[in-house]
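Sat 14:20. Reprocessing the chain from the morning session after the first attempt stalled halfway. Input below, unchanged.
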Amino acid sequence: MTDVQPRTDAEIQQDRTGSTSTRRVVLMGAGGVGVAAALAACGTDSSGTNPNGTDFNNNPVPAGSTAADGTSSGGGNGTVLVAASKVAVGSGVILDDLVVTQPSEGTFKAFSNICTHQQCKVTEIKNNQIACKCHNSLFSIEDGSPISGPAGTPLAETKVELDGDNVVASA
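Finished this time. Tokens:
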């Protein structure tokens, strides 16, 4: 017969040398990956045209020249938003941050493209109205005021003017 002697907890722990620290290292590594992911999510979006995530153009189009998108740069001091020819009378165009409209011939307006109800982006312009499809709010192309739906506040307006063939943000 074999003599069986019980082992102490200290002897059992000695046989598992490294198992506790290995688990600890794995858990710390997993935590580090989580922190890195969180920090990356807070970082700069690099989907813009520049590596720092902005859409700043380091090589602007000279006044009077034609850009790649067909818009030309006027001699004014405002930022070119869109070629006036691309904004139909009684309608408009939705840009990255703004909606540019032409409620009547030669009158241009610009508004935020973020609905004042729950901050969805507006998606359509038809029948002299700017539409947010999230909750069916409608806004006037003339002054950005709410026409129907849950939105009760007008779209924020940006002052614009016609500069040559372009609609530009004015100071």
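Residues 7-57 form one domain.
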